[in-house]
Each structure stands twice: as structure tokens, then as C-alpha cells.
Write a structure and sequence with these properties.
Blueprint (H helix, E strand, L loop, with lengths): L43 E2 L1 H9 L1 H9 L8 H18 L7 H15 L3 H4 L5 H21 L7 E12 L2 E12 L5 E7 L6 H22 L5 E6 L4 E5 L3 H24 L29 H12 L11
Parallel strand pairs: 1-3, 4-5
Antiparallel strand pairs: 2-3, 3-4, 5-6
Helix pairs in contact: 1-2, 3-4, 3-6, 4-6, 7-8
This protein binds iron/sulfur cluster.
Amino acid sequence: MVVDVEQGVVPTARAPEITSAITPAITPEITGSTPRREWPSPYALSPSSMGAFTTCPLAFRFSYVQRLPEPPSAAASRGTLVHRALERLHDRPATERSIEAALIDLAVAAAELESHPEFAGLELTDDEWGAFIDEAEQHVRRYFELEDPTLVRSIGLELKLEADLGSVRLRGIIDRLDLADDGGLIVTDYKTGSAPSERWEQKSLAGVHLYAVLCEQNFGVRPARVQLLYLSKPEAIVSIPTDSTVRGVEVKSAAVMKAVRTACDRNDFRPRPSNLCDWCSFKEFCPSFGGDPDIAHAVLADRASAAAGRPTLPLGLA
Ligand code: SF4
């Protein structure tokens, strides 16, 4: 299972969705700090990766091109847990989708995920773990304020789709695809971060409209509706895919892919400082804060080796 945990203001920790032909220089081996002259260009874009690139090209390089590990985050992990609980809920027959059943699904999901490195890495005390689960439970309860799951006809959960749009390969994972009473498709995306500002709302809507394009390309039918369910507030934002939104996805994805390819060819991923830098896992390697991006891989590999008790090499001696 891979869950999109776009936390609004946190550069996403969701499983990397750009599949890159990564060269040996960024395999887990320590490779030193020699600056590269170019990077291989990713072959596909997802809503998460497009958002990452447009927010900060350098952070995109760290996360999606180099695939450097990020420390676990409680917010991202809570999102994973809530998504998994709702996935289990909608896997049940419609008549069984009660709050009680959802809380059982949450407990099962928590037990499943407790030993996962993402969770183990949080190193929560018992009290912190209790608060973590309580917050996840609040999200699950609030979900029931947004819709009655017994009326939902889910036909796809955690649906992985890919399609070509113009010259760009798109990919994404749709949290839930439903069939409406009139036979139309509905794309649903859960959000576990804060309720959106207008700017983030537009970015998130762009993401679900990309999912609508993936559905249309794969199933030959344009979804009748896309919806974002913000579980923290709770708040639902609904939009209708149109020729204009499809064209918007096409234009934007082509522009982002062109910029990504140029950045890869020239090894030119510029930092774009903003208030999001406080949540950036790679701030110490960012030139805007006095860091050196070209040592990031070696430093993180060195730390991982030290944590695992393996011998480490001095930087630059790979
Ligand atoms: S700290 Fe640097 S790399 Fe991270 S988001 Fe800010 S500008 Fe980008």
C-alpha cells in the first residue's frame, strides 16, 4: 500500500511517485561528494512530484531524483494510518461501514503498521503513541461527518493508474473511485493535513483533476466529479472535470516536465526559499541556508551506516 500523505505545508513524504532511471551514483552505496553534471530525467509525473518541483526544485531533486531518505514524521504517519483504516472500511460490504467498524479497522491498521519502519522510526513514548492514535481516531470520526459510507459504491481503492497525456507520462494513486447512482465516476482524495488555504486548495484540486485525467485515459470516461475530503476540519471540496481542467492538466504537466528535464540536463535545481523551508528535511544541505547539496547523499548514507552499526567512510573517499 502506498498512501498519498500530502500534508499541505510539508514537502510530501509520500512514497516517491516519479520512477526515475536512477544511475548508480545514487544507489545506497556511499558515492562521495563529487558534483554531478547531469541527472537522468524522470519518465513520469504525479501530483505529488509536480507539486514538489513547483514548490522548490532543489527539494524535488533531493526527494524525487536522488530519493534521499527523509526522517519519519508523525503527521505523515498519521495520514498513512487514517488512509489505511478508511481503505479497510470501504473494503467492507456497504451495510457494515459503521463508525464502530471504522474504529476496529483503525485498530487493525495500527497493529499492522506499528512495526513498519515509518512508525518505529517515530520512537514515540506510550503517551505519545496514545495521543497519535487519538488524533487518528478523530480524523476517522470526522470522516463520517462528510459522507455516509453505507451509500458509497466504491469500485477502486488505492488505485494505481498511469497514462500518457501529450508527451508526458502521468501516474498517480487514487484513494477511492466510486460509482454514482447515475453511473458516473467519482474520484475521492482524503486529506489529513490542515484545511487548505486558497493556494493549497488550488494545488490539491489540480492533483485530483490529474486523477480525473488518468481515469478518462484508462476507462474512456471522464469522472463526473472529483472531491477532496479534508478530515481535520472536516470539509469537502468538490469540483467538476471539464475540457478546461483537462487542458489545464495537459499544459501544466508538459511545462513541469520540460522544466524538470532541463533541470536534470543542466544539474540546475535551484532552491526556492519560502515559509515551507522550516518543514524541509534537507534544509542543512540547502545553499540558501549555508549547506552543500552535493554532500547530502554521502552524509545521509554515512548516518545510515552509523545507525546500522556499519563502518563508514570519510566524506569524499567513496
Ligand atoms: S530549505 Fe532549501 S531545499 Fe528545502 S524547501 Fe527551502 S529552499 Fe528548498
